[in-house]
């Protein structure tokens, strides 16, 4: 049995990995430590497993396209007075093999065995395929 687990989340409105990186960069400056974070209503009940080596996998345009290592979970209170969870992330986005994923709400746990593999080192510098093409190739098992 794995000692850690991942999270998976839709990146709504994001056009690609570069777009996600730019959005996170623009939001990092006002944070106390300069690290990107995603604020969510729900605190992971499996906190210890998530913090034992988990990443958040980002679904962009119907494909899991990248991941970020989860560094910690911070309690934050919104302007509305409601307590939330800030998932604090490593700024490095790691591209993964594009994998189709249907829409869902919120975040979900993702078992390590179900997580897309990281892109091979030589492929990380290639230009990204258009999401539609990457999705079609992933569906037939080419990438």
Topology:
Blueprint: E1 6-10, H1 17-28, E2 37-40, H2 47-51, E3 55-60, E4 63-77, E5 83-89, E6 94-100, E7 107-110, H3 131-139
Parallel strand pairs: 1-3
Antiparallel strand pairs: 1-7, 2-5, 3-4, 4-5, 4-6
Helicity, in percent? 10-25%
The H-and-E topology, N to C, reads as EHEHEEEEEH
Please indicate the count of domains.
Answer: 1
Which structural class do you get from the secondary structure elements?
alpha+beta
Quaternary structure: single chain
Summary, kept brief:
The chain is an alpha+beta fold and 143 residues long. The protein has three helices and seven strands.
Describe what you observe in this structure.
The structure is a single chain. The chain has 143 residues and is an alpha+beta fold. It has one domain (6-139). The chain contains three helices and seven strands. Strands 1, 2, 3, 4, 5, 6 and 7 form a seven-stranded mixed β-sheet that branches. A hairpin with a 2-residue loop joins strand 3 and strand 4 (63-77). The model has no long low-confidence stretch (mean pLDDT 88).
Key phrases:
7 strands; 34% strand; alpha+beta; 143 residues; globular; seven-stranded mixed sheet
């Amino acid at each position: 049995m794995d000692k850690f687990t991942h999270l998976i989340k839709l990146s709504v409105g994001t056009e690609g990995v570069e777009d996600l990186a730019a959005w996170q960069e623009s939001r990092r400056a006002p944070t106390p430590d300069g690290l990107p974070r995603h604020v969510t209503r729900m605190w992971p009940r499996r906190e210890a497993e998530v913090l034992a080596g988990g990443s958040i996998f980002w679904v962009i345009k119907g494909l899991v396209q990248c991941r970020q290592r989860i560094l910690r979970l911070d309690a934050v209170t919104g302007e509305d007075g409601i307590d939330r969870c800030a998932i604090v992330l490593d700024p490095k986005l790691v591209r993964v093999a594009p994998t189709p994923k249907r829409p869902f709400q919120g975040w979900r746990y993702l078992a390590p065995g179900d997580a897309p593999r990281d892109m091979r080192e030589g492929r990380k510098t290639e230009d990204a395929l258009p999401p539609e093409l990457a999705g079609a190739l992933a569906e037939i098992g080419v990438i």
